[in-house]
Amino acid sequence: MEYRTHSPAETRALGAALARRLTPGAVVGLNGPLGAGKTAFVQGMAEALGVEEPVVSPTFAILCVYEGAVQLVHMDAYRLEDADDLESTGFYDFLDGRSILAIEWSDHIAPLLPEGIIRVAMAPLGETNRIIHIEGVDKLC
Description:
By secondary structure, the protein is an alpha/beta fold. Helices cover 21% and strands 28% of the residues. It contains three helices and seven strands, in the order E-H-E-H-E-E-H-E-E-E.
């Protein structure tokens, strides 16, 4: 499905709409250039999952864990190069069916990801507008 958002708030709302449809064990792969709204989308997911602490880009931490009604694992795969890098993050420990994983730059590790992930491709159109393609779930709104 293709969606268009016109502000960061709308991008977060779309992320929240997706999160409300997910169950523990879901993996969401987000892709798009810098500034496409990947982190804003995950912030919306976090809000819908009951995360109360601020959600920030995991660029330097690589992996952040947030507690809510369901644990949210937010990962940045931009600097990961191979299976050893992915293993060193503890990624596989979170595939136990208790967490929802949101992976920014998931295309960098696509061959290493489990089957059935939800794919979110984001493209900016100017300062605040976005085209967002979501594959793997039915229409959100």
